[in-house]
Amino acid sequence: MLQYVVIAMLAVGAAASADWGQIAHVFLEPQLIRSAFADGLLSALVKTLEYTAGAFLIGLVAGTVLALMRLSPIGPYRWFAMAYIEFFRGLPAVIVFIAFSLLPLAFGGLIIPFDPYGVVWLALGIVAAAYMAETIRAGIQAVPRGQVEAARSLGMPAGLAMRKIVLPQAFRIILPPLTNELVLLVKDSSLVFIIGVSATGNELTGFGRELANTQSNLTPLVTAGLCYLIITLPLGFLARRLESSSVKAR
């Protein structure tokens, strides 16, 4: 009980000593919030969603392939999948972004299609695939093995049993963690500014950062951060609902 009283007293003391007028001016200036919307904040929000959606699709497809390779009885497939997963899970996403942005310099004439979308989708998707692969593998292993054996006893080929029986059930099981992966991708899309996209290609962080530098005020960056919450909070709520529904179904 004492610790709560101490925390409450510290919070009250901090609130009483704060210069709320200055805080509002630096972080929540109404005129600059309106200016952010007029200058293209909603367009940056759409760019964030586009970057996230493409990367999630690439990560999901590649992650499924890696998960199947990780469970394969063929040694080289397993070794490749394990090496890929460990490498990209241990590597900061920012380094992958920088590497992909420098590929055209390293390989003369190389053109990544749909620039800047192609670079962003590949960089984010490659990293996301490593995390999704482990999630999907866990979902596949959670499907009762007896169902696969029953399908095989009826003459169903292994590949068809995986597509028709195992994967649909596995994806139902892993919907909550996949939704969490989507939330992480939304936040990781903030790394796009590193590759130096044009103003029209800016996502929320890049947009807020440039406008904050121009206005010498942090309000545009705070506004961009609130837009991230508008995206991620409903996704987090959805993940919790899916997880709760999954527990009840069991």
UniProtKB/TrEMBL annotation:
Transmembrane segments: 51-69, 90-112, 118-136, 221-240
GO CC terms: ATP-binding cassette (ABC) transporter complex
Pfam families named among the record's database cross-references: BPD_transp_1
Tree of life domain: Bacteria
This protein's record includes keyword Transmembrane helix: yes
Stated family: Belongs to the binding-protein-dependent transport system permease family.
Keyword annotations of the record: Amino-acid transport, Cell membrane, Membrane, Transmembrane, Transmembrane helix, Transport
GO biological process: amino acid transport
Compartments where located: Cell membrane
Main location: membrane
ABC transmembrane type-1 domain segment(s): 45-239
Membrane topology of this protein: Multi-pass membrane protein
Family matches, as InterPro entries: AA_ABC_transptr_permease_3TM, ArtM/GltK/GlnP/TcyL/YhdX-like, MetI-like, MetI-like_sf
Coiled-coil stretches noted in the UniProt entry, renumbered to this chain: none
GO molecular function: transmembrane transporter activity
Protein name as it appears in the record: Amino acid ABC transporter permease
Organism of derivation: Streptomyces sporangiiformans
